[in-house]
Amino acid sequence: MKLIVNADDYGLWKHNSRAIAEAMNKGLITDTTMMATGEWFNEAVALAKKEGFDDRIGIHFNLTEGEPLTEKMKNCPMFVENGKFHKHPDRLHPLTKEEEEAVYAELSAQVKKIKDAGIDITHADSHHHIHTGPFLIQTFLLVCQDEGIEKIRLHRNFGIIPFYKKIIKKHFNKNLFREGMKTTDYFGSLEDALGCGLPDGITELMVHPDYDKDGILIDRVEFDDGIPAGDPLSRLEKFSGEERITYRSL
Q: Considering the entire predicted model, what is its pTM?
């Protein structure tokens, strides 16, 4: 067994970005993925360089929250309303040519912003798993291939999953292999691992480090009256005996 623990949403807000840096320093996580559209982007870049984990940062592609970087996307109602992502794009909607062009331009701009900040992107995933949309994945893969990003997150494939979803996810993941992308063998959440154990192979666990109302480092699963809530991130210590690797070494 080999384990990657990736923290999503780096750069999104100040509080969660500081929590990710603390989790990295404590050895709880191995990697993180950065949001080019995050409100704390510049500060997060500086923090990563200061703390020495800027070589373990991937891209957290975003089409669902905050403000787009490109004018094409700002004028794309499938994703944007009043200048901001509206969080509920129809993932089962076939894209028009104009929508494909807007998605490609936006994702490419997000890559450029991170690269221009001096970050060598190690891998890719996405906010709210938007890259797993059946009519979106090919555009995501095209951007990755054009930008030299060779590693990408799987569709969740361990834990408790309904049978029909297993079929969909298996087909999606096989397509990643056919397109020449490198992936882990398994992907799931910390809850999946705690409930079902780690499968035999290379597994990525997704976490969302943050601080709760008492300042405890947690894996955020929700907000309670605007305050992050979840269980202690220290639960990752259950897997401290497993070999840790990074996406860069995958």
A: 0.97
